[in-house]
Amino acid sequence: MDNHAGSATSLDSQQFIKKYGPWALVVGASHGLGAEFARQLAALGFNCALLSRRPAVLDELKQELQTNFGIEALVIGVDLMEPNAIETIVEQVGAREIGLLVFNAGAPPFTEHFLTASAAQWAGFVRMNTETVYHCCHHFGAQMVARKRGGIILVGSHAAFGGTKKLALYTATKGFILNLGESLWAEWQQHNVDVLNLVIGSTDTPTMRAHMAAHGMPIPDDLPTAQQIVPLGLDALGSVPTLVHPDDLDLAEGELSRGLQRRDHVLESTEISAKFIGD
Ligand SMILES: NC(=O)c1ccc[n+]([C@@H]2O[C@H](COP(=O)([O-])OP(=O)(O)OC[C@H]3O[C@@H](n4cnc5c(N)ncnc54)[C@H](OP(=O)(O)O)[C@@H]3O)[C@@H](O)[C@H]2O)c1
After folding, report:
1. Residue-level pLDDT at 2
2. Phi first, then psi: what are they for 187, rounded to 5°?
């Protein structure tokens, strides 16, 4: 293995860059998992396009990555809840070759009952987690398919698996993302483009801390961290459509992981639907 200094993965960095480089676009890079993705990808030698609503914070990360890893970085300040977000992203990325898209942003702005916020207040969040996600997958995925190489990591949530009180639109939109990602995994395998749903549970991020603080809850000291989760996602890209953390770690002998169960479901339903709509 040829690890770059600072990388926490067991990846062969040259192979990884060859398949997914030279640029990674990290959507939601200003803190938590997104910032950690950027750090670990920069350590592998990726140039990083860093996106969030706070360009000043991203500028600091850009400096850090350039200094520590000698890579190029780009800051994109955009609100993903805005209807024209994709146009801004495409324009700012310009001709840079995005070989890896990490769509990380996606936590809800409020953890409240459905009726606590108005339908209009929820609209931006739903747009970010549906329209903006599929526009990014469509735009950058099309380029990857044309190049016959690339990868997409969609950071998902256990919320995708079913409805939950106070998380109605979060569960609904995370279900959308999970099904989108698994379908694209099935469609793009033949084009050498990998899609991974990195499905996680409660994780120690600034957003999670802010939500807990808003509800007067103490932060548990045993939450998984971004530093623990990100390398698992990078390692899993290209092997499964879905990795469920922590369920898919430390499986008993002979036990099929949830990710592999979901892969089998995707393959089976693809085969069945082909009898009706072709392949
Ligand atoms: N933390 C958890 O416990 C947990 C559990 C399960 C799943 N997840 C998933 O993990 C991912 C990351 O979650 P997180 O806890 O780090 O919180 P998050 O609020 O999704 O923040 C992640 C990043 O997204 C950016 N972002 C958020 N809203 C944005 C917007 N409207 N426009 C542009 N950028 C935006 C944030 O930057 P700015 O604020 O600077 O814009 C930040 O850099 C999400 O997809 C979430 O669903 C998290």
Report:
1. 38
2. -75, -35
Q: Which of 102, 207, 225 to mutate to test the pocket of ligand 1 (most atoms within 8 A of CB)?
A: 207
What is the atom index within ligand 1 of the atom nearest the CA of 125?
A: 31
**What is the Cα Rg of the chain in Å?**
18
Regions of the chain with pLDDT less than 50: 1-5
Burial category of 25 from C-beta neighbours within 10 Å (exposed 0-12, middle 13-18, buried 19 and up): buried
Give the Å distance between the CA of 226 and the centre of ligand 1.
Answer: 12
Given a contact cutoff of 8 angstroms between Cβ atoms, the answer to whether 159 and 203 are in contact is no
Query: Comparing C-alpha atoms, which of 247, 255, 241 is closest to residue 229?
Result: 247
101-144, pLDDT tens digit by residue?
999 999 999 899 999 999 999 999 999 999 999 999 999 999 99
SS3 24: strand
Main-chain dihedrals φ then ψ at residue 23, nearest 5 degrees: -110, 140
Q: Is 43 exposed, middle or buried (0-12, 13-18, 19+ CB in 10 A)?
A: buried
Ligand 1 lined by 60 (C-beta under 6 Å):
no
Domain annotation for the chain: domains and CATH numbers: 13-277 (3.40.50.720)
Residue 241 CA to residue 259 CA, distance in Å, equals 7
Atom in ligand 1 nearest the alpha carbon of residue 174: 47
Burial of 173 (0-12, 13-18, 19+ CB in 10 A): buried
Tell me if 149 CB under 6 Å of ligand 1: no
Cβ count within 10 A of residue 150: 25
